[in-house]
Amino acid sequence: MIPKSHPRYESLLLREKIVKAAENGYLADSAMIAHGRGEAFDYLIGEKTTYPAKRAMYVAVAALLLSNNPVISVNGNATALAIDEIIELANAVNAKIEINLFYRTDERVELLTTLYREHGYKEILGSLDDDIEYLNDIKNNRASASKTGIYAADTILIPLEDGDRAEILKKSGKNIITIDLNPLSRTSKMSDVSIMDNIVRAIPFMTKIAEDLKTQDKKVLIEMVNEFDNEENLKESIEQIKINNK
Ligand code: PTJ
């Protein structure tokens, strides 16, 4: 039990979630390395949501609301840190949720499917009995996608995604949104909208934004998406790291 008075309480709580998920068997072997990298970047931004991240979140939610078939792709780390919040966001923007693992094993897929169902999300895609297709005709796990989910999606939110998979998704013509604390990652650079923030802060904030943007005129949302420049926003995100550490 971590005392609330501990100066690194929030961060240690997230570590505990990751450790527990590893014990439960649904994390990738390298999940802790990925988490540690995220922690380091979060430290550099002062563990706070920056202005460019907020701007990217508004654009991301607008894009999700404008989409015909938006999908949130989930892996072990994202699930361990924010399963209930992901389900809430999916409901708020009317998106599907699909399990899509970089290090895919049937056992992990099965454990994650059960977990989402236990948390009240019955229609989880990417389960073992789902209909799978391959993106860009690449017949490997990296390119596998649910026929009614990612395969048919126009916009996909890919939090904490590996660069190889992000590239395959991008090449298949999808509109890609990522949440990645590393603004220099291939995934961040390749995405249409990159949110440099911790998934535990970003997802609940995006759900709040969705409640606000849902009442807006469609034209306003289109304008928000069209005016956004991801490269410029990433530069500003990197600038925030410098400003925070002066
Ligand atoms: O469950 P699987 O098999 O799909 O595997 C999941 C991981 C995350 C292990 C896999 O996708 C992977 O190896 O990813 P990478 O290449 O390590 O990239 C993950 C990115 O997420 C890195 O750029 C990290 O900085 C970032 N990251 C880690 N924790 C967080 C984060 N971004 C936002 N919030 C976090 N809490």
Furnish the topology, listing elements before pairings:
Layout: H1 9-23, H2 31-44, H3 51-66, E1 70-74, H4 76-93, E2 96-99, H5 106-118, E3 132-134, E4 144-146, E5 155-159, H6 163-171, E6 175-179, H7 186-190, E7 193-195, H8 199-213, H9 218-227, H10 230-244
Parallel strand pairs: 1-2, 1-5, 5-6, 6-7
Antiparallel strand pairs: 3-4
Bound molecules: ligand PTJ.
Ligand PTJ binds next to α2 and α4.
Structure description:
The longest helix is centred in the middle third of the chain and has 18 residues, at 76-93. Helix 1 (9-23) packs across helix 4 (76-93) and helix 3 (51-66) packs across helix 8. The protein is of the alpha/beta class and 246 residues long. It is 53% helix and 11% strand. It has one domain (51-244): Phosphopantoate/pantothenate synthetase (Rossmann fold). Helix 4 (76-93) links the parallel strand 1 (70-74) and strand 2. It is globular, with a radius of gyration of 17 Å. The chain has helices at residues 9-23, 31-44, 51-66, 76-93, 106-118, 163-171, 186-190, 199-213, 218-227, 230-244; strands spanning 70-74, 96-99, 132-134, 144-146, 155-159, 175-179, 193-195. A 5-stranded parallel β-sheet has the order 2-1-5-6-7, sandwiched between helices. The protein has a two-stranded antiparallel sheet with strand order 3-4. The structure holds ligand PTJ. The site of ligand PTJ has 25 residues, from helix 2 and helix 4.
